[in-house]
């Protein structure tokens, strides 16, 4: 997953006379994509339960090398101007396949922010006021590894939604830990919307360090009054396949089978 903020309105006007038939904003977005893909990082999705991003985990830059210019040219052609997420799948042979591009910030954006140091939401606002992408983002350097667990209001065994009244809500802290949430003790989780309660993000210099920090944070996270995905995520973080990075679209099937056995 590559997320990049795009420039806002007003920037075309600066060079309207010089930019014949071109789209300066699209070129700036393309430049951002090039920066992001100089050192490719990957985002691993486990059925909307956990996401992660880190340099050199499962993917290396040469997988994207031959296609990078094609992706950049495609964005230039459509005149794309805002934040977006480009998603791919990699098969067992290392071939990369484009899935889709979501023209918005996604719920996984904190993992991008943690490994780049860029506040994507703030960047969008600054760009929308007419600031230059180069001034807002600067030179991007990816470092470390980040994992995000979506704390959902649902049964950890059946995934049935668990709406209700939160009686206790205590979030974890410590080095490399971030919690994005609007929930609190005495809050009510209604049955009408997405079951997301909080996003728990752990960052470390290495994937192993990020996993250890996530394990500790999940143990510290206390939510009572409703069921949550925390018990399942604790088990996933302890799974040997997950720790070794043996992840694919069948991971949860194998994980469920091993637990049943």
Features:
261 residues, alpha+beta, D-amino Acid Aminotransferase, Chain A, domain 1, 2 domains, five-stranded antiparallel beta sheet, three-stranded antiparallel beta sheet, 12 strands
Summarize the structure.
The chain has helices at 11-14, 24-36, 62-65, 68-78, 109-116, 120-128, 133-137, 207-220, 230-238, 240-244, 251-260; strands at 2-4, 41-46, 50-55, 84-90, 96-102, 145-152, 164-165, 168-170, 177-181, 188-189, 196-204, 222-224. With 261 residues, the protein is of the alpha+beta class.
What do you see in this structure?
This protein has about 260 residues and is α+β, with helices and mostly antiparallel strands. The protein folds into 2 domains: about 1-135, D-amino Acid Aminotransferase, Chain A, domain 1, CATH 3.30.470; about 145-260, D-amino Acid Aminotransferase, Chain A, domain 1. The protein contains 11 helices and 12 strands. It has helices at about 10-15, 25-35, 60-65, 70-80, 110-115, 120-130, 135, 205-220, 230-240, 240-245, 250-260; strands at about 1-5, 40-45, 50-55, 85-90, 95-100, 145-150, 165, 170, 175-180, 190, 195-205, 220-225. Strands 2-3-6-11-9 form a 5-stranded antiparallel sheet. The chain has a 3-stranded antiparallel sheet with strand order 1-4-5, with helices on one face. Strand 2 and strand 3 form a beta hairpin. The two termini are about 35 Å apart. The model is unreliable at about 1-45 and about 55-60 (pLDDT under 50).
